[in-house]
């Protein structure tokens, strides 16, 4: 770019110098014409004047061409200067755009680093939360004296330590709910019965006939001729569901099994009858074994339920 400017400047200087030389030459011709009149004949002078006129005309033509070339050079120089200006403006715009893009790139890098840090924090929190047995906390199974409890609701009844049916029903409702949650999350379907948690009024449905349901709660004010029979059918179906879930876990890991064996056909768990309406101490003990099995299932789910 600088070399082009230099060439244009040299050409302009040459044209200016030619004009100056031409004017000097005209002055010389005038001076020579005066001398010719004095020393030559009229005929020779005429001839010389014609030659001079021709040479003057040629010089005028050259001068005209030089001026036109100079004007063209000046135009090109102006155009070139405009191009240089536009190129500088474009370069400045490009530099500004590059700087903006670089700043955006740096901001994106900062965001990526921030997101990576947040992801690490989230993963660490997730790993920490995985160690928390939330289901175990939500359905706390323990015991109070001879009674097993779930979320502090007693399950069972004794002559010398009676328990209201409303509390027993609440305990059975909590037990039904936690089993329903575990099976739903694991995608397990029971073969013979379905559990329908409904607070203190849970129900057990037959798998092959959903219209047939049994109340998993003691209805002290029921006018049914078979309140105990229907409740025992529900309790037997509930035990069957616990038994199936225990078999599922053992199939998943043969080294695992529920602590207390359930024999639904005999209406027993660990050789204790779970039939309601008989020996209350035996029934209470059987339900204690039942909640122990549920506690074991909850512990298994909290450790292996996300497989």
From TrEMBL:
Any keyword Oxidoreductase?
no
- PANTHER family according to UniProt: BECLIN 1, BECLIN-1
What is the taxonomic lineage of the source species? Eukaryota, Sar, Stramenopiles, Ochrophyta, Chrysophyceae
Full protein name: Atg6 BARA domain-containing protein
Q: Which residues form the Atg6 BARA domain?
A: 130-302
- Which family would the database say this protein is a member of? Belongs to the beclin family.
**Per its UniProt record, what InterPro entries does this chain match?**
Atg6/Beclin, Atg6/Beclin_C_sf, Atg6_BARA
- A GO term, aspect molecular function: protein-macromolecule adaptor activity
Q: Which UniProt keywords apply?
A: Coiled coil
Coiled-coil regions listed in the entry? 42-118
> Which Pfam families does the record associate with it?
APG6 (PF04111)
**Annotated Gene Ontology cellular component terms:** phagophore assembly site; phosphatidylinositol 3-kinase complex, class III, type I; phosphatidylinositol 3-kinase complex, class III, type II
| GO BP annotations, alphabetical order | autophagosome assembly; cellular response to nitrogen starvation; late endosome to vacuole transport; mitophagy
């Amino acid at each position: 770019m600088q070399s082009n400017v230099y060439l244009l400047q040299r050409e302009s200087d040459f044209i200016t110098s030619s004009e100056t030389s031409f004017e000097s030459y005209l002055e010389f011709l005038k001076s020579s014409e005066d001398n010719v009149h004095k020393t030559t004949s009229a005929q020779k002078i005429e001839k010389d004047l014609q030659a001079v006129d021709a040479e003057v005309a040629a010089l005028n033509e050259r001068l005209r061409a030089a001026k036109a070339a100079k004007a063209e050079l000046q135009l090109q120089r102006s155009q070139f200067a405009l191009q240089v200006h536009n190129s500088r403006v474009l370069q400045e715009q490009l530099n500004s755009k590059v700087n903006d893009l670089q700043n955006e790139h740096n901001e994106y890098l900062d965001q990526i680093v921030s997101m990576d840090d947040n992801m690490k924090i989230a993963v660490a929190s997730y790993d920490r939360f995985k160690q928390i047995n939330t289901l175990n906390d939500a359905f706390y199974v323990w015991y109070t004296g001879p009674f097993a409890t779930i979320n502090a609701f007693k399950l069972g009844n004794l002559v010398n330590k009676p328990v209201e049916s409303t509390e027993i029903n609440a305990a059975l409702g909590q037990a039904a709910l936690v089993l329903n949650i575990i099976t739903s999350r694991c995608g397990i379907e029971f073969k013979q019965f379905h559990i329908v948690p409904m607070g203190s009024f849970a129900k057990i449905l037959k798998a092959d006939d959903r219209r047939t349901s049994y109340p998993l709660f003691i209805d002290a004010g029921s006018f049914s001729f078979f309140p105990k029979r229907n409740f025992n059918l529900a309790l037997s179906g509930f035990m069957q569901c616990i038994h199936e879930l225990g078999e599922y876990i053992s199939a998943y890991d043969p080294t695992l099994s529920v602590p207390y064996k359930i024999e639904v056909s005999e209406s027993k768990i660990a050789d204790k009858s779970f039939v309601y309406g008989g020996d209350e101490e035996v029934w209470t003990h059987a339900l204690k074994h039942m909640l122990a099995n549920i506690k074991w299932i909850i512990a298994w789910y909290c450790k292996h339920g996300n497989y």
